[in-house]
Amino acid sequence: MGSIQVPLFYPFSENMKILVCVSEYYPFGTGIANVAYNIVEDLKRMGHECVVCSPTGPDIKLGSGPLIDRWAIGGLLQFWDLVATCLNGDDYDVVWLHNPMFIRANPFRHSIATVHSTYYDKYQQRIAPVPYYALTAALEKYCLKKTAERAVFTGVSPMLCNDLETIGIDREKIIFIPNGVNTVAFVPPSNDDEKQTIRKKYAIPPTHRVLLSLGRVSDAKRPQTMLEVFDQVRAAIPDLTLIVAGGGEMLEETKALAAEKHLDTVIFLGPVDYDTVVPELYKCADYYLMTSRSEGSPLTLLEAMSSGLPSIVSNLPPLLFIGEEDCGIVVDFNDEQKAAATIIGYLRQENSVQAEKARTYAADHLDWHVITAQYLEQFERLA
């Protein structure tokens, strides 16, 4: 198990007051919500004062979560307009903005904008509905340029940093800071008995190898491609189970495809509790599977690595480090037959070394303490 790097010294001599503006916040959200929450909790432990503004608070409530869920870009534009008109940035040393969408000018002089994903990428990948992402990509470009007038940017993957530059943000204003993971909460099973105990809850045969896919079942994740490939892999390796955890607009049609193909070793769990169920799903799995055609810096992948799972991922730029760091394999899922053959060959190998490397890489490079130190350096520069 790799060591956790905890920053011991920070050059800023005084504690800061930081305003955090985010459209979702733990426990009422997933990706962005968890990133903001984990960094904020670390900053608080260091003595900094953090004031969080989101549709659910906890400190300042603006906008409407249900409106964002229902109308997406419309709800986001309303939230950020309220942020611009209701909050005074002069009351804070730094303002931290997550995927800001200011229609009017950025009102905050000392601000840093973290971009977790872009509509631009979704439009480039022609994710459905394409007309929607064409519109939102154009709005995003306008809003990010407004934000850039008084902010520096961080992107959670090198690809996102490139996207920001393509959109029109000055490269000198863009910094790469990856997402992180709670390496204490997400750990490998202590022994095989713990793994088998969890598997019994889901009626998984003890001799099966288990692939886990966790996240929204949507077009961007290519769930039908995942099933097509799994069908071919299982034909060669029958003792294989696939767990699909998460809700989404394509869940029912994906279930229907599994039934049509008689994939009786695919387990659909639907939405699951993040704090209690998700960690045990990683513990009962042997591999993490990600067939996406669009990703930023997916927290589920980092959690899987921290849990000691080798990963099988798409050949997207933000995911290539899995192969480069020997923590799994990178697969071209555009060719389903070739992808299946690659995975079959991989599963027939002994991959325990890659499991250890995944855990070590997460602990050494992606623990939230390490990531918080990188953000704090940028906050101090602005303050």
Automatic annotation (TrEMBL):
Q: Name one Pfam family in it.
A: Glycos_transf_1
For this protein, the record's InterPro entries field holds: Glyco_trans_1, Glyco_trans_4-like_N, Glycosyltransferase_grp1
Q: Which keywords does this chain's UniProt record carry? A: Transferase
Presence of keyword Lipoprotein: no
Keyword set includes Transferase: yes
What region holds the Glycosyl transferase family domain?
195-353
- Give the superkingdom in one word: Archaea
Which terms does the record give in the GO molecular function aspect?
glycosyltransferase activity
Which residues belong to any copy of the Glycosyltransferase subfamily 4-like N-terminal domain? Answer: 31-183
Q: What is this protein called?
A: Glycosyl transferase group 1
Task: Give the organism, scientific name.
Answer: Methanosphaerula palustris (strain ATCC BAA-1556 / DSM 19958 / E1-9c)
